[in-house]
Specification:
The protein is α/β, with parallel strands linked by helices. It has 2 domains: 145 residues, PhyR, sigma-like (SL) domain (Butyryl-CoA Dehydrogenase, subunit A, domain 3, Up-down Bundle); 120 residues, 3-Layer(aba) Sandwich (Rossmann fold), CATH 3.40.50.2300. 56% of the residues lie in helices and 9% in strands.
Length: 280
């Protein structure tokens, strides 16, 4: 069948537009996956929402908000999917992580959590957050205040810090204690972290990826989770190296350099879901 010249030209233009859009949003997908997991509390459900977002963009690329920066536009599409319906998540028998996340999402004020995570974990401005959520700027400010009040009312936790850089370890110690939590131990190696975790039974673990003796924070966390369940937040300067679509991957992730509000929000979100929080 012969294709009309005009139709062929339009098809080429559409293909070029789609390829350009794909190149623009691709670098931002790892951080969107981090955000989606932090919002849902589970790898499966977070990735399901990201997949639905990409499907929506492929189906209607002309609907992508081109007036926004590519990353902000990507998050806008994500939130259209998020607000329209809960995405079905396939979970293996006995794996309650995704189901637990969905149940708890019905119990909290989702907009306040979204606003807080967007401005802290994802470092969007309040104006950008307003555009992403499709809410007035003054409402976004009020939502953030509401979320911060929720943080202050949250149950205090005993936290294990696994970090080999002394300055960062002390900074994390100060941040979590200022937020009302207790640091039960600070360790610089995987073996020390595993021993401290078994001894102290913390309520949450903050873990760097690369440790003092060349050991891995991921390995330490895996050994800890083999003994008991505990929420875990990983800390890294290279989040894109962890969010590759391969297992194991973190659900809760803080990027260096971090802000105090970023740490507080991540700790609050991880404790909220009371899941293993890291390796699914």
């Amino acid at each position: 069948m012969q294709v009309e010249p005009g139709a062929q030209e339009k098809s080429n233009q559409n293909k070029g537009y789609y390829m350009s859009l794909a190149r623009e949003i691709a670098p931002h997908l790892p951080l969107l996956r981090r955000y989606a997991r932090a919002l849902t509390g589970a790898q499966e459900s977070g990735d399901a929402f990201v997949a639905a977002t990409l499907e929506a963009i492929v189906a209607e690329p002309d609907e992508f908000p081109r007036k926004a920066e590519p990353r902000a536009g990507l998050y806008q599409v994500f939130h259209r999917i998020w607000s329209s319906a809960l995405v079905e998540v396939d979970a293996e028998e006995g794996d309650s992580g995704a189901r637990k996340a969905q149940e708890r999402l019905r119990q909290l004020s989702p907009l306040s959590r979204q606003a807080l995570l967007l401005t802290t974990l994802e470092s969007f401005t309040e104006q950008e957050t307003s555009e992403i959520l499709g809410r007035p700027l003054n409402e976004v400010s009020a939502l953030i205040e509401e979320a911060l009040e929720d943080l202050n009312a949250q149950t205090r936790a005993r936290i294990l810090i696994i970090e080999d850089e002394a300055v960062i370890a002390m900074d994390l110690n100060d941040l979590v204690t200022d937020a009302g939590h207790d640091v039960c131990a600070m360790e610089t190696t995987a073996s020390g972290a595993v021993s401290a975790a078994k001894r102290e039974r913390p309520d949450l673990v903050l873990a760097d990826i690369q440790l003092a003796d060349g050991s891995s924070g991921i390995d330490a966390v895996r050994d800890i989770l083999a003994s008991f369940e505990v929420p875990v937040i990983f800390i890294t300067a290279f989040p894109d190296r962890l969010l590759t679509g391969e297992r194991p991957e973190p659900t809760f992730l803080i990027t260096k350099p971090y802000s105090p509000d970023m740490v507080r929000a991540a700790v609050s979100q991880a404790l909220f879901f009371e899941s293993t929080g890291s390796l699914n």
